[in-house]
Design brief:
Blueprint lengths: L7 E3 L3 E6 L19 H14 L10 H11 L9 E10 H7 L6 E5 L11 E3 L8 H28 L6 H12 L8 E9 H11 L6 H17 L1 H4 L2 E5 L5 E5 L5
Helix pairs in contact: 1-2, 4-5
Length: 256
């Protein structure tokens, strides 16, 4: 019997910013800007001021004060102009099955198990198992077995489909069949683009104590990144340690 492969186990997500708004102010509708503001924040302020032609800033608000008032009033539509694209790695397919349920305001592009060879795939250990030696050992053994089965099935299926002349198509046929034995913990990579309002809604739901632990951990990681990118959009979220000794977050302005 061949030795089982040693799977690579991941314990935390990796979040990379791929794109952020670039705002070009029209010269004939210049705003009296006050204070600091990112391009995304100023784009939202410009859009809001256009509605009332208040570019002269009669209330004398800074960009972040203006957007704080926007959130307070619940006028979240202007936040939809600012889009942020993130690369999520070190997340499981179980997580992305939940994430892609957030449709409005989002776009997704995810790694395809049908085309990509998963014989050297990584696996995301569920947070609930981390730190318990017995649970980690049992989980890792199951992952190694699944990975070994996948690799063997791909080899056998490639032999079965030898009559297919197109090698690319043959590999696709083998991988699409063999992937059925891979667990939900298989790591995937996904590009997620969302407007600031959509990100806020997802983060409010998925960073709460009621959220599943892995997606909650991912939401906290994304929140930290977006708070750095655009504090005026996401600064009303507060991260804290919940009773289960894991991080969660609450939002100041509900469903902006």
């Amino acid at each position: 019997m061949s030795e089982l492969p040693t799977p690579t186990v991941l314990r935390d997500p990796i979040i990379t910013v791929l794109s952020r708004p670039a705002f070009t102010e029209p010269a004939h509708l210049g705003v009296q800007w006050i204070g600091e503001g990112t391009d995304g924040e100023r784009l939202a302020e410009f859009a809001g001021r256009l509605c009332y032609m208040s570019q002269r800033n009669p209330a004398g608000r800074s960009t972040r004060e203006y957007l704080e008032n926007i959130k307070k009033q619940g006028h979240g539509s202007v936040l939809e102009h600012a889009n942020y694209s993130l690369l999520l790695e070190g997340v499981s397919r179980s997580l992305t099955h939940e994430l892609v349920r957030h449709r409005a305001g989002f776009a997704y592009s995810q790694l395809s198990q049908r085309y990509v060879d998963e014989s050297d795939a990584c696996f995301v250990m569920p947070p609930a198992m981390q730190g318990d030696a017995a649970l980690e050992t049992a989980w890792t053994a199951q992952i190694a077995s699944a990975l070994g089965t996948y690799t063997a099935l791909v080899e056998s299926l490639m032999q079965r489909y030898q009559w297919v002349d197109d090698k690319v198509h043959r590999r696709k046929m083998a991988r699409e069949a063999a992937r059925g034995v891979l667990p939900n913990s298989t790591e995937t990579k996904i590009v997620v683009t969302g407007n600031a309002r959509a990100w806020r809604t997802m983060l409010e739901l998925r960073s709460s104590e009621a959220a599943e632990l892995e997606i909650r951990r991912m939401a906290i990681a994304v929140l930290r990144v977006l708070q750095t990118e655009a504090p005026a959009f996401f600064g009303d979220f507060s991260i804290y340690t919940a009773d289960d000794k894991r991080e969660a977050a609450t939002v100041g302005y509900h469903k902006v």
